[in-house]
What does this fold into?
Amino acid sequence: MSKKILEISDLHISFHTFAGEIKAIRGIDFDLYEGETLAIVGESGSGKSVTTKSIMRLLPTNNSEIKSGKIMFKDKDIVQASEKEMQKIRGKDISMIFQDPMTSLNPTMTIGKQIMEPLIKHQKMHKSEAKKRALKLLDLVGIPKPDIRIKQYPHQFSGGMRQRVVIAIALACAPKVLIADEPTTALDVTIQGQILDLMKELQKQIETSIIFITHDLGVVANVADRVAVMYGGKIVEVGTVDEIFYNPQHPYTWGLISSMPSLDEKNNELYVIPGTPPDLLNPPKGDAFAPRNPYAMKIDLEKEPPMYKVSDTHYAATWLLHPNAPKVEPPENIQARMRKFAKGVK
Amino acid sequence: MAFLEVKDLKVHFPIKGGIFGRTVDYVKAVDGVSFEIEKGKTYGLVGESGSGKTTTGRAIIGLNHITAGKIVFEGKDITDPRKTKQDFRKNVQMIFQDPYSSLNAKKRVLDIVAEPLRNFEKMSKAEERKRVQELLELVGLSPESIVKYPHQFSGGQRQRIGIARAIALKPQLIIADEPVSALDVSVQAQVLNFMREIQKELGLTYLFISHDLGVIRHMCDQIGIMYRGRFVEEGTTEDIFQSPQHIYTKRLVAAIPDIDPTKREVHMQFRQKVKEEYEQSYHDYFDNQGLAYSLQPVSSTHYVALPEKG
It folds into this structure.
């Protein structure tokens, strides 16, 4: 396997609010390899965005706190880095695409200026040089007539075009890591497809690693190499995209896959994960998913499950994988997927 | 006779310009749309943003001024909102897209859900309270919720409050404008299931507006696809998904992400092929202004916007 570029270990993040301490991230570990796309999925409040914002050190300083843990990037611990050091990393080595292209661009600056900004700041380019590069970038992300468009303001662009501009800015310095936080959620399906294809194409060209945050499993199946499933501030399952879609082990992953409206069959009732997400103000003892888990055992309510190894690339945190655990029957559609996996997915 | 009939609906918004603020041009948000909905069915309106699907929905309920065309609900013309009777307002309700902004943050749930009751029914305080509690139970919220405020609920729960408000007057038609777009997959499943359940229970008819084809396919009996204010294709769910005829529909169907990682190469190639076909044959399917032609029948249920032959 290729080289690790980002290593996150035992990360704990809390928010201090009037109601008390919210333990948003409760000990997560994951690695990002060179050139891969890692998708992080989970419902809102599971900690996906907090995790990635901590990599950029973009969490609000007044009420958030990284309690412990390490984020290693190029032999440097980002958790310990000063703001000045971070400013050198942000936009140059690690950059980010935000969800809403309508609000992530500055409405009072031409898009040309916004693309040139990181080039002038990080790569110490001359203005005319930066402009040439900006034109090239606009062309690269598929914006027609770049020489006219470069002088225009964000309001003169449609949603899909704005997201292309945001991608151009994020890729301006050819970053090592690109974090995409729901980059297509605000876009229409056809535009979404185009943007996803574009990101994949560009990834090949500049060899970045991408962390892709989304709650849309369809998108995950399309772009990801590996998938991490988050629940209640923890990673509950991680594996290659085939392993997660065809051999899922955690009951939460089963629930997520079952609740998608499927295009193959028109079934009448969608599966619903019962209950509500855990209250991270007082995180539950034991497995956070246990109260919503139809397969929960007594131990789930008392003790947190460790990460069990399923294969070299596939880990899941559920007591069901304990050697002494009783055999359970996953939902029918998951079993069908597992049978397909057993036969070899290809 | 159809339950709801929309005939050649046009909604044009004026563009004001110059020092005198005169009307210089029009934005043709909806430009000649016709369809019918049967009682108890779900009709899906699909299209990209700016295609006029929301404007159509809002025009039916009377939130947008109608430039031309006719809307007939149960045999009665309801085109002019000033002339419509109160009972139409009672019979048609709307569920909005964003559960965060469609509820008044300063009002308790009791006041939010009771508002339509206060407008149309003469109820005593005690009756009203009882009815609201029943409604909340129906949407799966505890009766004690009535004294809480919207911020105390999650997104899915808020959308349920919006639904409780919409069904308070036992309407016959509900216009659901992207009701699940702002929700997580797991919550989305809850709301969709629930909407189907109450459809059976209360015999509701839905006009379901969405850009998510997976959801549309799951919910709808009939589908109309909009592009720049016009229909490009209309048919049953099978017609649209099994044999899309218009190049725009083909492209839309091809763009749905498939939850099967093994097929992604094939899928991407297919998408590329459809995109090329789209670019090549664009002029066969759209007129010189880039608008869709009028609908021609392909079968008894399936209509496609194609140029007239000859």
Notes: Chain A touches chain B at residues 43-44, 159, 188-193, 196-197, 215-219, 221-222, 224, 241-242, 245, 255-257, 259-263, 266, 268-273, 276-277, 345-346 (CB under 8 Å).
